[in-house]
Amino acid sequence: MASAIPSPRLERRAAPSAVASAVVPFVAVALALVAGGIVLWAAGEPPVAVYRAMLDGAVGSRDGVAETLVKTIPLLLAGLGVAVAFRMRLWNIGAEGQLYLGAVAASGTALYVLPDAPAAVLIPAMILAGMAGGAVWAAVPALLRARLQVNEIITSLMLNYVAILFAEYLVHGPWRDPVGFGFPGTPRFPDAAELPQWGTTRVHLGLAFGLAAAGILWLVLGRTRWGYEIAVAGTNARAARYAGLPTARNILLVMALSGALAGLAGMSEVAGIGHQLQRSFSPGYGYTAIIVAWVGRLHPGGVALVAFLLAGLLVGGDALQMELGLPAAVAPMLQGAILFFLLGGEALARYRVTWRRPTPIPGGPAPVVEPG
Amino acid sequence: MGDVAAGSDRDVTSTASAARQSRRDLLRGAATASLALAVGLGPRDARAQDASPAAGPPIKVAFVYVGPVGDLGWTYAHDQGRLFLSQQMPNVETVYQENVPENPGDAERVIRGFAQDGAKVVFTTSFGYMEPTISVAEDFPDTVFVHISGYKTAENVGTGFGKIEEPRYVSGLIAGRMSTANRLGYVAAFPIPEVIRGINAFALGVRAANPAATVEVIWTNTWFDPPKERAAAEALLDRGADVLAQHQDSAGIAQAAQDRGRLAVGYNADMAPLAPQAVLTGPIWTWGGFYVQTVQQVQAGSWEAGQYWGGWKDGTVDLAPIGPMVPEAVRAEAEAEIARFKAGEKDIFTIFTGPILDQAGAEKVPAGTALTAEQLLGTDMNWFVQGVEGDPAP
Asked: Is residue B15 assigned to a domain?
């Protein structure tokens, strides 16, 4: 009889287990390395050497660290944006679209609004335009949620596709480089629009934006009345309403801030790295940012740390093929394994697994007895 | 060289695994051990004496690929060229990275990484790598970069491309003879001169064989996206096309044609193994010769940044074997044409010799004159020849 078999259930813990919270990241990474190691070993590769190559590629040299930092910048900024919204239980899945809109607004500023401005004017203008672009894009689902109770998960996600297609339209159409042999992409930005880079590396000023944003957020969320309001609204929306907190206004503000940070990520990417707007300039930073925010436990410091670690994981993955000649699929496999165990571990810190027989629902249909 | 080629498969495999072994040593700190050890040339200081003059000194050559090496398309063709290079020149160590996105963040990191790792020649094999290649090359003046399919050069950046339109034109002749519906379809990546030129060459071949036929174009805005390519192919089949051609990197189009019992012209590499009942033939890339030539020039110190544009005569492009469904008369006609291209009696300029009319019937190339290389390669190539249905500037 099927119903007699005990099945695993997840029960929410009253409070996240402190012990589990502390050890989960370490156990998760260790388990992921073991799981990945089994696959590598089965494929005839010595796991330790592979991991060492990844570590070496990510942080083993000045250039490795620089490239890891380059990859950290968009993950950090977009991750902070996602974390702010998630703190208030606003599930903004639209960071990718907000990042694209930020890049579009910053590119338009550099190419068509202030093409002749000096850097001291142009770069602040691009920052403002990028943040405004992201904020406006995030305000759409925020308004729908605050006024009409429309689920922001769906609207923010759907707006990603709109934003990406809008950017594609621009680079294929009106903004296409007239001397670009018809290939989609805007002309190169004026030199004044390029974010300064650190020495001969590609690490650009966007890193300072990211670190400043993390610091400011840490202060705002942890030390101000508004930060407290958001924490209350995120923990118990009903209590926040009874306390007379302005929920609708905070939904708008938090989502706009969230979108502005993602927009700044997009601005940094085009002004710091690409120096032009092109199609698919983001390999999904806005989606990876959700993982960054979640694994970083929605804390600005945690987000910064996780953004750096995840960037290292992505950059270190290059070494697997470039140096060891492994198939390109190995890197995402290892990356996926690590994330799987990390997120799984997080769940176990919040929930406990119990084994028990399903109890029949009172008044519900009788359990079906299967023959045999 | 003959001996090397004969034992090629085994040699390549053992070299690859030995290279992996040696690079592991490198990671353990034995920095002098590298591929040279694996191929039996001894440590760094002894290499110069041990290397035979014909083979040249050891050199590391890197390839940046936009797709997977197993795509049986564009990237596969480049990887065949890489394997040919390592067969022909055993003390060349080749390294590569697949699936490198064309966004500047990732592409530049990979190209830079190869230059930092000591690659002396870096082939970047997709149009979207042009800016990152130029950008990295500025920082590595002693490394030679060869960008495939672009137009920007520098002191240490050359370009390489081929006159794929020559075999494409002959594939059009065959396709035009094989179509009974007089409707052909063409799944195309981006509306850029390279792709438009190919569509025009194909259509000129089709119309030379079958003046009543039309070629309908669908743009996908992607080089490699098998489901999207297939969806475009099915739309063309739904509208009555009985032969499909493509400027895409996967075999999804040929497979869609085969599933409907229709015909297809492949691209990049011989796609017949994936859709044997459908594939008539296809223009293919044979990069190996160009790669060997470039690396030899770099070793000899005679390499100069230029714009290589190889034709059928030079062995840079070819036509895949003609399928068994093609009748003998058509095959004979195609083979005679192939011989003329290979001998240099015909070339890309012959194909684009007037009279050529555009879609609206206006004369674009007067009788007796041919388009120049500049007109073929540059932004002037933004129009379709008569018989093509679709928008060259969507």
From this structure: no
Encoded amino acid at A234, one letter:
G
How do residues A222-245 score in pLDDT, each as one tens digit? 999 999 999 998 888 888 888 888
pLDDT band at B393 (very low <50, low <70, confident <90, very high): confident
* Omega cis (within 30) before B141: no
Chain B residues within 8 Å of chain A (Cβ atoms): 16, 19-20, 23-24, 27-28, 62, 68, 95-99, 101-106, 108-110, 112-114, 116-117, 127-128, 131, 139, 151, 190-193, 196, 221, 378-379, 382, 393-394
Q: Which fold has domain A46-325?
A: ABC transporter involved in vitamin B12 uptake, BtuC (1.10.3470)
Q: Is the pTM of this model over 0.95?
A: no
Subunit contact A53:B27, Cβ cutoff 8 A: yes
Q: By residue range, what is the domain housing residue B113?
A: 51-162+286-310
Query: Touching check for A323 and chain B: CB below 8 Å?
Result: yes
| CA–CA dist A1, A357 (Å, integer) | 12
- Higher-confidence residue of B2 and B322: namely B322
Distance of alpha carbon A161 from alpha carbon A175, whole angstroms: 19
How many CA within 13 A on the CB side of residue A170? 22
| pLDDT exceeds 70 at position A67 | yes
Considering the domain architecture, whether residues B61 and B200 belong to the same structural domain is answered as no
Residues B280 and B361 in one domain: yes
Distance separating the N- and C-terminal Cα atoms of chain A = 8
**Closest listed residue to residue B109, CA positions, set A161, A68, A277:** A68
Residue pLDDT, tens place only, A270-309? 999 999 999 889 999 999 999 999 889 899 999 999 999 9
The C-alpha atoms of residue B332 and residue A97 are separated, in whole angstroms, by 55
At residue A124, what is the residue type?
Answer: P
Phi, psi of B311 (to 5 degrees): -110, -170
